Amino acid sequence: MEQQPPPLTPEEVAHLSAKEYAHLGQPQTVKVLGILHLVFGAIGTLMIIWTLYVTFVGNPFLAFAGKSPEMLMQEKLEKEMMGVTLMSTALYALITVIILIAGVLLLKGRRSALKYSNSYAWLSIASKFINLGVYFLYVAPMSQEMMRASASSAGMASTSMEIFMTGTMVGIFVLGLIYPILTLVLLNRPVIKTWLANQPS
Fold first, then answer.
1. Which of 113, 90, 128, 126 is CA-nearest to residue 36?
2. Suppose 22 and one of 6, 144, 184, 198 were both cysteines; which one would form an S-S bond, judging by CB atoms 3.0 to 4.6 Å apart?
């Protein structure tokens, strides 16, 4: 049976020392982040499956869209980027495994949950910077060259597409940093660290 915290008021809890807090029941922060870890891990697993399917089988949406110059260009770009995609997917798979393990350990209230959560957070943050660098150094120049080579994508249309793609990538980068940073901040508070340190491994 899950240990339930005593019926203390928020004011009483706020005045407890870290050592006293460690003897209370599982903090809600631990439970909530444990659930979120598993949710994001499940989403990550689905994304990995989809990426591998598109890489080795093909993007079904491109087939539905027909063989327009833009679709042919997109198909060629995906083939050119296969190596980068596979390396990125392998790194993402490692992060997904770690966050799933961390989620289970958090819900079970295990001491090692903090280690796995921190590992996930730092690796996730590092991967975001790696992906952003790969985009600007490799993906963006390749996609720009292909778009400019397409007669239907010349001029203003090509420039607009480049701006859209860059803005999308930067937006994904910023949004992607939010959860791992929150994980580091919330789980490394003294009271949470002390509570986890007093739990079984």
1. 113
2. 198
Task: Select from 148, 149, 163, 172 the least CA-distant residue to 88.
Answer: 172
Q: What angle do CA 17, 23, 28 make, to 5 degrees?
A: 90
Q: Model confidence over 48-102: pLDDT tens digits? A: 999 888 888 877 766 665 565 555 666 666 677 777 888 889 999 999 999 999 9
Kindly give the residue spans of alpha helices, DSSP state H, lying in the chain.
10-14, 18-21, 28-56, 60-65, 69-80, 82-108, 113-134, 140-149, 156-187, 190-197
pLDDT value, residue 1 = 42
Separation of alpha carbons 26 and 195, rounded Å: 8
Q: How far is Cα 69 from Cα 61, in angstroms, rounded to an integer? A: 15
Question: Residues for the chain: how many in total?
Answer: 201
Which DSSP symbol is given to 25?
S
Q: How many CA atoms lie within 13 A of 128 on its CB side?
A: 18
Say what the pTM is: 0.77
